[in-house]
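User: I'm putting together a small comparison set for a docking exercise, and I want a reference complex before I start. The sequence is below, and the ligand is fe (iii) ion. Could you produce the 3D structure with the ligand included, as structure tokens?
Assistant: Of course. I'll restate your input first, then give the structure tokens for the complex.
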Amino acid sequence: MTAMPRLLTDLHAATLARGDAPYGMIRDAAIALRDGRIAWVGPQAEVPEDFADLQRHPLGGRVVTPALIDCHTHIVHGGDRAVEFEMRLNGASYEEVARAGGGIVSTVKATRAASDSALLEQALRRVDALIAEGVTTIEVKSGYGLDTETELRMLRTARAIADQRPVRVTTTFLGAHATPSEYAGRDDAYIDEVCIPALRAAHSEGLVDAVDGFCEGIAFQPDQIARVFDVARELGLPVKLHAEQLSNLGGAKLAASYGALSADHIEYLDEDGVRAMAEAGTVGVILPGAFYTLRETQQPPLDLLRKHGVPMALATDLNPGTSPLNSILLTMNLGCTLFRMTPEEALCGVTQHAARALGLADLGTIAVGQVADLAAWDIAEPAELSYRIGFNPLAVRIKGGVL
Ligand code: DI6
Ligand code: FE
């Protein structure tokens, strides 16, 4: 569908773009859309002559925000981990679960066994739930293949999502997610013989927008992540990192040294790491779904991130093991209730700062020249988006100026 020029009227615009009012709010506003971009935004009483004759589309006094962005997902994967969820609740230890074949390896097995069409079909159902909540951009990681063929299949599937649904997909190579069973005890060999060649193959097929890794005691050490990031830099690809989720290995500081787009999870981040992120312009991505699912206790240092002006994004981390969280709105509520983000920080976290975490400069705010990705909500105040638990007030979703 093409984007017809139009003037959205009778709305309140939470622009997230202007420093003065909270949310950058413009009450009784209008937004002019042209060629899929925002041509003008301001008080409806001040619509310029140029836009006065556009076809009007009244929004009934609703609050309009930038469309939502889920900047950290593992939405493409085979199988699920419901059985191990049940085993754990029946008292099984992580070791018993692992011995029974649970954990990341069980998702790797299911993903390798799944056909391309099955991977896509299962992903589309998860994508549809996010679309229903006003999401127009989704980041999708590989990382459950852990062999070249399956890593490529995962990334091709991610690209195929955007062909099947009105969403923008950015892809992230996460070969350094875990060491597959065939390389048990040989992490370095896996990095050199599989992860890095798979990255090169994926890049040569145009499948990679960014490179990620899991820097953790149960995954990869900083020096192993650095070997992958050196290749990303050689290929001209930006990096991001699962860092300080369960311990502090200095992952965020390592990521910042590569000018990373983001460091994600960061529950165990210290002030040294926060300073490094602030200097590098690295976004802190807050992932309450894994913290909630794992019943973690160490909270990310929001006070330090605020003190040093590190932008905070917020995302589902949708993955079958530690964050089977398929709702960006519930993610906002968890960010506020579990970590005490403010509702304005939460909304900014799934719009403007989520865009920054993906290196997308023309998304995430309502401002002239930005892509016309918008959401109109049946709410009186933006705080309602984080306040409600399990309620979806989306009224209108606009992607690229198309309602
Ligand atoms: N951190 C996590 O919590 C997930 N991956 C990661 O890097 C775990 C993924 C899984 O358990 O399937
Ligand atoms: Fe993740």
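The pocket of DI6 (ligand 1) is lined by residues 104, 107, 177, 214, 242, 245, 290, 319-322 (CB under 6 Å). The first strand starts at residue 6 and ends at 14.
User: Thanks, that's exactly what I needed.
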